[in-house]
Amino acid sequence: MRGLTRAYLLRRLGMYVLTVWLGSTIIFIVPRLVPGDPVAAMIGRMSQSAGRVENSAEIINAWRARFGLDAPVPIQYVNYLRNAITLDLGYSLAHFPATVRDMVAQAVPWTIGLLAVATVISFIAGNLIGALMAWAPTPRWAKRLLPLSLTFTSIPYFMLAILLVYVFGFGLRLFPISGGYGRGLTLGWNLPYILSVMQHAILPALSIVIASMGYWALGMRGMMITNAGEDYIILARAKGLSPARLFLRYAVRNAVLPQVTALALTLGSIVGGATLVEYLFAYPGMGYLLYQAIVSNDYSLIQGIVFILILATATAVLIIDLVYPFIDPRITYQQR
Amino acid sequence: MTAGESIDVPGVNGAAERDLVLQVRDLRVHYATPQGDVIAVNGVSFGVRRGEILGLVGESGCGKTTAAMAILRLVQPPGRVISGKVLLNGTDLLALDERQLAQVRWRDIALIPQGAMNSLNPVMRVREQIADAIETHEGKQPKNVLHERILGILATVGLPSRVYELFPHELSGGMKQRVCIAMAIALNPSLIIADEPTSALDVVVQRVVAQTLLDVKKRLNVSMILIGHDMGLQAQLVDRIAVMYAGNIAEIAPVQTAFVEPLHPYTQLLISSIPSIKERKPLRVSEGLTHDLRRPPPGCVFHLRCPHVVDQCRVEVPLLRELKPSHQVACHRCELWMTPEPEAGATPTAAASSPLP
Amino acid sequence: MAVATVPETLLAPAGLNRWDSPWLNTKFVSGLVMVVAVLLMGLIGTRFWPERLALVASSPINLPPAWVSPNPQFGPPEAAHPLGTESNGRDILAVIITGAPRSFQVGLIAAGIGMLVGILLGFTAGFLGGWVDNVIRTVADSVITIPSLALLILVSSYVRVVDISSMALILAAFSWAGPTRLIRAQVLSLRERGYVRMARLSGISSFDIMFREMLPNMLPYLASSLAGNVAGAILAATSLEALGLGPTRIPTLGMTIFYAISSSAVLRGMWWWWGFPILILIVIFTGLFLMAIGLDEIANPRLRGASADA
């Protein structure tokens, strides 16, 4: 039996539910570590830093009406979970009466677009480079790139972003360094807008791609070296297979499997890094929204964004998990 | 291909050139270590006739697998082939460039590896791995022709047709080994090197695989080198047997002769240490010490363990010499216990009892 | 036939000297040198450079580094402030000298706790197996999937961090999952090794097996993991600080970057403000990373200077 078995599917779905539940529970608990009514506490804190809060009475009433804050904590928890499932994340404190859901919904496409493109490019390019670096026929000058990728791997995304902003934004002024698109453009599927979007996405995407490519390259190189001594490679050579075929279908095909696993495991930190990059570039995704929420002490928005980030990451990992058995036929025989 | 070079190869005296599939002459393989080269294969020469199975035996570390890998040019760094000639159907394999080598590989000389467990690509189906070899050497094939052909090959090794679609992890150990055999015969090569094909299997499956090898040999008349250290299995399968010790060939003889009248002290040691089902024998533990493979002793490489050692052995390297037809020994003293050749016309016969003790 | 004298061929060849020791791996040593250099700079630097210059309003504002030609936008560079100053009146060199050890402090505490918990849980899961293993593994996998920075931001915004230790503790809460997973995998693979099975057969207690047989063999691997985790913890701390969620009264590298960004230092061209902290951080990260890779090569000899030759 290979491919997607029911047991595997159930297990992966179970992990998904557990992860989201765990995350949301932590989000639920943290505000309540402070004694008292969480909403009043939020507002109280806001007014500490920002002075008087507008509409505070309305906000509190609206919350109470919607979320029943008078109920005992376990009931609040159940309500909270129920609301989370329906993505009802409450009102933004700083932008009342806007709902958290609406605000997040505007930012999500930007983040997903940036992250998906950057991650895919860096994964494919990084693994290919890593594989070539470990392959003997690759010319030596190409292999000297190894120390170079070593350097970039240890630079966090946002530091690279700062450098890029300085070089390309302040120095060379080649790319826009702020925002998601140029001012005065009409949103929609028109060419000037799309071009502007792409132009604005280049530097943020580049920060992520350059910084993470090295990680994939190094890992892939290590896997290729480890696999080179495997018996099936030796037998494949004895068969006189063409170098290209050996490289792709025997070496790379097997070495890339742990890399996919690593992708699922590091997706959490990739999302974290991208958040900071967005903040730096004022890119209108969830990262920038999160920063604005922090600055304005908009706690309900912070909670909402964190929840969506957890949900999105867990969903991406689930997708990878479900695709994995199709690239590794052995997987349902072992626990991953 | 150039006209076959002819070299003087021991063990095939009288055999015409065209009868020799493989001629190995003075093959040397070293492994580099920080403390100096380990001499794994120390000037090995032998030949394989068309249609015969040559056994290559010796204890672990004696260099038999290394010699086989050197023939296939699969020696991995830090190992390297120092010198020697390997003539396959007259072409020196060690002199070919990468492109020519890729053409010769599998089509003319194939390998049945030792660990079939890991020798199959885990992410490719059986049919793809067999088709790989075929299409690399014969170009793209029409699907149905290929399908029939692969099924035929699987049938030759006694595998059911459902194996066609399976992945390696869905096969048992014996089945994987037979898939490897199937792959090896797919292009009908002149020579197959089988590197301990049954070592990793249990006794029952060993028999099935051994039988498969025999069937294959009979049907296709392919020559084989069968590497191993299971003397009993060798006795059942091979025509001639070559015994290696510490990178050198000690003795090459027809298999029955090797069991009945081994001439080299090391071969005698091997034969006598096979447990017997028929009689109780004292366990003979060899005395003496084995040497550091980086510094082989002067003279005969076996002299530290040999019960018959004399001064000459410690100083002079014994060359492999032909003492009887098809029987070579590398020993200074073996004439002492050799029974003389019977009258001309009569070939040495096997003893009345079976070669197995 | 006893052998009276040992023939020369049996003696181990001379030439095995200590410079061949696997611990002298290039990557590991160069990484170690980098890390130690920064550490030393931080620990000893205060003897040579006044610490008080890292405080607000201790120096003239907006001075470029001493070797830069004067720019009318900013004040004249002075030798007294070789790396320049920023708009709050802090001397950059002093900030780096006092900030670097704090980064290490956070990293070591958080990663140290994470490793300890990881060893504890990893060994327990690997050794006991069964439902204990299932629970630990499942929870650890969940925690790994969750983007920790997001939760850290949440926690930090509620619990305003005031000092290094509390930040480290918060980080530690999320840094145990990775080590747990790695150590569990190592324990599982080592458990089936010959020498461990022998130990179990001879009746040695599990505790002894863990610490006398398995742990010593895992040391390079654990050290590699620790180096990686320290880097991760420092990165997390710096990220939080860069968003403004770090301790506000103490100069740290991350907070300096935050101030730089909020004062638009990048666009104003005050590259020294964020440039030097970033440089030091890059040295720290690269050093730790090299150490981790080097230790990995020490633990797994196959990776040493090898290439996958076709």
- Tally of DSSP helical segments of chain A: 13
Q: Residue ranges of chain C: pLDDT <50 for 5 or more in a row?
A: 305-310
Tally of DSSP β-strands of chain C: 0
Output the structural class of chain A.
Answer: mainly alpha
- Helix and strand sequence of chain A: HHHHHHHHHHHHH
What number of structural domains do the residues of chain C give?
1
- How are helices and strands ordered from N to C of chain C? HHHHHHHHHHH
Overall pLDDT confidence of chain C: 81
Description:
The complex is a heterotrimer of chains A (336), B (357) and C (310). Chain A has 336 residues and is mainly α. Chain A contains 13 helices and no strands. In chain A, helix 11 (243-281) packs antiparallel against helix 13 (299-327). The model of chain A has no long low-confidence stretch (mean pLDDT 82). Mean pLDDT of chain B is 84; it is low at 1-7 and 345-357. Chain B is built from eleven helices and twelve strands. Chain C has one domain (39-60, 82-303): MetI-like (MetI-like fold, Orthogonal Bundle). The radius of gyration of chain C is 25 Å and the shape is elongated. Residues 305-310 of chain C have low confidence and may be disordered.
For this entry, give a set of tags.
heterotrimer; B: 357 residues; alpha/beta; four-stranded antiparallel β-sheet; 11 helices; 12 strands; 29% helix; globular; disordered N terminus; disordered C terminus; C: 310 residues; mainly alpha; MetI-like fold; 64% helix; 0% strand
